[in-house]
Amino acid sequence: MRSRALLAALVLGAGVAACKSDLDVTNPNQLNSQTFWSTADDALQGVNATYNGLLQLGTFLRWQGFTYDIRSDIGYSPSPWTDLANFNKFTFATYDFDVNHDTWNDTYRTIFRANQVIANVPNINMDPTLRARYVGEAKFLRGLLYFHLITLYGGQVPLITTPPLPGDRPASSDSAKVWAQIQTDLTDAAAALPASYSGSDIGRATSGAAKGLLGKVLLQQHKWAEAATPLLAVIQSNKYGLDPNYANNFTASGKNNVESLFEVQVGNPTLAGSQGVYGLNMSKMIGPCGPSFCDGRPTPWYFSQFFLEQTTTGQVDPRLDATIFWNKPGGMDVYAIPFATRYASNLANHTPDTLFFKKYGEYYLATPTNGDQSWDASINYKVLRYADVLLMYAEALNEQNQTANAFQYINQVRARVSLAPLAGLSQAQLRDAILHERLLEFGMEGQRWLDLGRQNLFADLPTLRAHDPEFNFFVANKSQLLPIPTAEINLNPNIHQNPGW
Amino acid sequence: MALAIAAILPSVATTAHAQGGSRITGTVLGEAGQPLAGAQVTITNTTTGAVTNGQGKYTIISVSAGTYDVRAQRIGYSPASQRVTVSSGADAVADFQLSVLPANLTAVVTVGYTTEQRRDISGAVSSVSGNEIRDQKVATVEEAVRGRIPGVQVAASGEPGRAAQIIVRGQNGFGSPAPLYVVDGMYMSENPNLNPDDIESIEVLKDASAAAQYGAQASNGVVVIKTRRGHAGNNEVQLRTYYGYQEVPKRLNMMNASQWQALNLMAYQNAGFLPQDIPAGIKGSATINTDWQDAVFQKGGIQDYNLQMSGGSPTASYLVSGGVLDQNGTIITTTFRRYSFRVNSDARSGRFAIGENLALSQGNQQGLNGYPLIDVVRMVPTVPVHDPANAGGYGYGSTANPTYGTNPVGELQAQTNRYRSNQAIGTAFGELEIFRNLRYRLNLGLNYNDSTTTNWRSIDQLRYLTPNPFATLADARANGTSLLYENLLNFEDAYRDGTHRVTAVVGTTSQRVDYNRLFAFRQGFSDETLRQIDAGSTSGASNSGYTIPFRSNAVLGRVNYALMDRYLFSLSGRRDCSSRFSPGNRCGSFGAGSIGWIASDEHFFKSIPLVNRATFVKLRASTGVLGDQNIGDFAYVAPIGSNVNYIFNGTTTSGAIQQALANPNLRWQSNRSTDVGMDLGVLGSALTITSDYYNNTSDHLLVSAPIPPSLGSSSNPVINAGKVRNAGFELGANDHLGLGKLQLNTSFNITTTRNKVLSLGNGGQPIFAGISGVARSAVGSPIGEFYVKHVAGIFQSAADVANYKGPNGQPIQPGAQPGDIKYADLSNDGVINDKDRYNAGSGLPKLTSGLFFDARYGAFDAGVNFRGSYGSKVFNVVKWWTERMDDLNNSRAGLQPWTPTNPSTTTPRAVYGAAGAANGDVVSDRWIESGNYTRLQNLIVGYTLPARLSQRFYTGSTRLYLNIQNLYTWTKYSNWDPEILGFGDPLARGIDDGFIYPNPRTFTVGLDLRL
């Protein structure tokens, strides 16, 4: 009996020992967050995926054209999509309206990616130089995205700098903290990033891009002297210049040109998202009626500004023809059809504002898709170009009472488009001249809303209303910031809505 | 069970006192006065007793003088006690007559890892025996259960080979309500493809006490299936076969061509069409008059053959069976064929026993394609089934008949939806009797399923202006391997003359499941007779594949303890560890306890007037917690999204990153289940009644919870936050009546169910599901309750429209015309919008019942079975098509829309196009109907040939029968079949969406031959 019991115990014991299935099962079909972030390749893929976050409607593919440009006095929206037209009148039926919702969500989704890189890559055993560079790239991107958030939503945005947990409910931050974080990120990035890349790395963030953006961030805070330092460093790097052909900056042929500090590298109609990369989507929204949807158009005031000054040879500022489709005497083709032909009925009805944005359109292609603008324009979006660095530096000098020293920088930008050099202006006059130069130089480049804010042009509402009647709906101390989307407010008890909303 | 008796008897025999004194003697008789051998007679609260001999006589020796309670008991009989006074030196006499316990009290029931007599069970367990299944002539296991078991719903349809869904005690969560199936010990998450002829018994473990041995997989209940085994005795050969046909029991009475033309002409005119703009097919005289139901429905043949041979000796037994089922559906092209083969055997030698069950089967199913049950009423009668003028030869809409209905015949013929599976289910066990009361058992199990699903679509055009650019083929190959490994120790013993009886099991169980799938898709076939992946064009091709591993381990235990045969206790526990959870949350403990009290065995019971008429009364209660690990695979870790690329210098460079937040704290969904019940036997236990009240609260249910967008997650993580309560009452009664040659069994059951969502955990936002989001799950309401606008009537005049004003004094439906539907402004805000929806009932029935009569008179037998379902609603999408009148669909004959001369108050005016759609198509209670029905489910008449006739040729018996299923249904539901519980989305039950195959009416004749 005893031996039998022993036998039974043995059988049972062996059984128990053998039956223990290994419960550590990982997903064999897909990488997961537990196994990722272990190799140099993981780090690289993570950084690349962070750049991919720029290819969303709410980051750089579409809506920045509305939040920074059409919403300003250079543009207006006659869109039949009432909510979109209302957005440009600072009016919402719901704060979850697409433009607002996409801008908020897509920006934070990309910040989540950058935070993953910044948190995880330092722990990977790999080439330390590359490791530092990857983290620098992610910090550059994070700085850029928070710059967007603070300039659109103000300092109350939650400042999230580590990958969150599902239970997190991040609180409203304040301007000082957000600005400080952006400056830290960009300073770190400038130190970690190389001055340039070669081969298939071209398009990554460089130290020049980080310094230029840092200058921009400081300038926006009126930290003129601090801003001047990194901007001058960019100028003195001698790595950048102005493309002799202004319009070249906004076509496929101007990709990563000498003027480019940082641009969003977009896809094309062939890819059309198939590999996770999309083309520039804004073109289809704000381009001319017919080939595009003309949901955002230039204000007549903006158009008129190009005629205030002629070139040294008595021509209209060439930047006009790169920026706006208009019924140009002598003719102008709109996607291979003459303006006067395409818009004959508008013109016959004496519609004076038959004007459309041209910049970032693929009008120059021999055969645009079905004669239409594709949703995936193959034109990189310039986030920061050297002309901006020059004008920002001029502004930084002028605001520091170094007006005389500032002319040389604005004049470089003017010279490219054959405008006579400026000289002998007072500080106030040069301030206006720089603003005016920026107005003509940067249409649809995401600058005007920043300019209005930085130079406090929102304070003069009657002037803005004269420029753009949509400003009749602008409410001081409210409309300068976007409302935080309803979904965020509803789900996050720790966040405050912006004033007035 | 034989072991249990063996364990008890020696202890009784050896404990009698061998010393002087008086004796107690007597006889123990059965109900009919026959002597009962082997009955135990004991003096209560002592170990003194004896066992009756072949004449039913017993003698207890060496009894001191005094007064004693003497108790007689025998398996299968109600125990009895009486008081005896023993004088010194004189024998006292105590005779007993024991009444038979009803069969369902003595039946041995498999409660998970233990077997118990029904009498001793203190949990909620219901059973169906193999004989009951075989008598019903059903093609699937679930149909055998349908209507038989209180608390069990079966969502079935008439689609050949379609596995039904069993739902035990309601919808417990937001996911699949499928119970765990345990077939001969093998765990299966899906309906097993079993031949009903092979089934010995089905037990449904409904409450926590019964199901707790299955821990983390038991929260939706457990269906334990045992297959037949051979028995000691002569070899036996059985041939069972039936042959018959099936049909759709009902046709909808649709308009003919000229009626349809008249209605649609009116619809076009009401929409303001000029005569020249009205399609020609509506105006001219109709030359074509297609009855689409005739074209789509058919009489489908069904035949079944099953041959079984079994036998055995006291030490070994075997059963071999093979069967073929061949079924053509009641809708053209649909078929099912199943081949099954089984070998069950066991052998015993001394203390060792081994056994195995092996079932091989192949199923071939050709299922539904498209939505033929919508198109069969939507398609207009002026379009022919076949039109040689069209490429492919099928008729469809044209400029003359601009309907966008799809040709339902073409849908079924030009497409295939073929599913073939090869399945092997095998279990093997070895058993060692270590001590007489302790056995070790090793269980091994395998379930292998290899399936091929092919979906072919020919290039033939089936719909107006919708050419099919190429033929397509999707071919999916999948295989799943599930392995089970268990070690069990079973203990069974009795002490002090059976005053204490204990059965217990402890053990470990582990499972390894691997599922693999490969999928290929091609479009463009130059020769459509070559329907293989290689024959398709590589342009537009796509392929995919994945594998999912799953592992689990558990330790389990259960103890049953019966004190004095009338105080019953059981305790179950299980600790489960599963690979579906993060390491910190991997294991969970589940357990349950139950108590029972057989009050009828108490001495005082006989003295309670009225109540003492009952021969058997058991009260029981159980409570416990069960788990559900169906949370999806790898759900606790966030996937790394790949193909998140970026272009550098013109080169696409690959990127990958986590885009969604995952919840690492995901854990089991749990179900706290409480049950109180009573089992009654009256009239000498000829009538038995079982009733239960249960209250189940499922907690930690998975819901997708929105999180602040600033966290940057591309989707919402799943969290354990939902809570749902199911409560209900179940009653089952069974009566046996024997009057000479007439034997009549009557059984009746009734179930009520109340379902309520207690919490959703996602900020209280309701979950919408089903077509147009018609089914809403909201806190305080049942899961998936229909949430629609209310039709308040029909506007009879312009004044009626103008007078229908909101609180602001403005007309609520200013654009409405006389004849349009007036919707109730339930939110009282002066406009009709989504806020005006209300809870209009759910697809879950409130009450279901079944009634069975089984009679035998001499050589004749007969069975009648009624089933009923009450309190459910059906959202009738088919009716939405037949009564919308804005889309050139066909309508039911007799539909009379509102006209100035026909002031209907229920049917709006007919308006073709957007205006009609805007008013009439609205998701409202106009499309909701009562789902109540009472169905004559089964009718069977059999005749067994006289032995003198059949035994001229062989020694067995021969039975012939006629069987009609689904003969008649009493219902007000306007479609083919009110039995619409629905498949697919458990959050949207009761939607008759055109994909629910009507349950057929089946006529069969059959032959059961026993050689």
What are the salient characteristics of this protein?
heterodimer, A: 501 residues, mainly alpha, Serine Threonine Protein Phosphatase 5, Tetratricopeptide repeat, two-stranded antiparallel ribbon, two-stranded antiparallel sheet, 21 helices, 46% helix, B: 1011 residues, mainly beta, Immunoglobulin-like, Ferric Hydroxamate Uptake Protein, Chain A, domain 1, 5-stranded mixed sheet, disordered N terminus
What is the structure about, briefly put?
The complex is a heterodimer of chains A (501) and B (1011). Chain A is mainly alpha-helical.
Low-pLDDT segments of chain A:
10-19
- Give me the secondary-structure category of chain A: mainly alpha
**Strand residues, percent of chain B:** over 45%
Portion of residues within helices of chain B: under 10%
Question: How would you sum up the major sheet of chain A?
Answer: 2 strands, antiparallel
The assigned CATH architecture of the largest domain in chain A is Alpha Horseshoe
Q: Count of helices of chain A?
A: 21
**Could you spell the SSE succession of chain A in H and E letters?**
HHHHEHHHHHHEHEHHEEEHHEEHHHHHH
**Helix fraction of chain A by DSSP (H/I, runs of at least 4):** 40-55%
Descriptive account of the structure:
The complex is a heterodimer of chains A (501) and B (1011). By secondary structure, chain A is mostly helical. In chain A, 46% of the residues lie in helices and 4% in strands. Chain A has helices at residues 2-19, 40-52, 57-61, 64-70, 82-87, 98-120, 128-153, 175-192, 207-220, 224-236, 282-286, 300-305, 318-323, 339-342, 344-348, 386-399, 403-416, 427-441, 448-454, 461-467, 486-491, and strands spanning 75-76, 260-264, 297-298, 324-325, 333-334, 337-338, 356-357, 381-385. The relative contact order of chain A is 0.12. Chain B is mainly beta and 1011 residues long. The model of chain B is unreliable at 1-19 (pLDDT under 50). In chain B, the strands form eleven sheets. Chain B has a 22-stranded antiparallel β-barrel. In chain B, strands 11-16-17-14-15 form a five-stranded mixed β-sheet. In chain B, strands 1, 4, 7 and 8 form a four-stranded mixed β-sheet that branches. Chains A and B meet through helix 1, helix 2, helix 6 and helix 21 of A and strand 23, strand 25, strand 26, strand 27 and strand 31 of B.
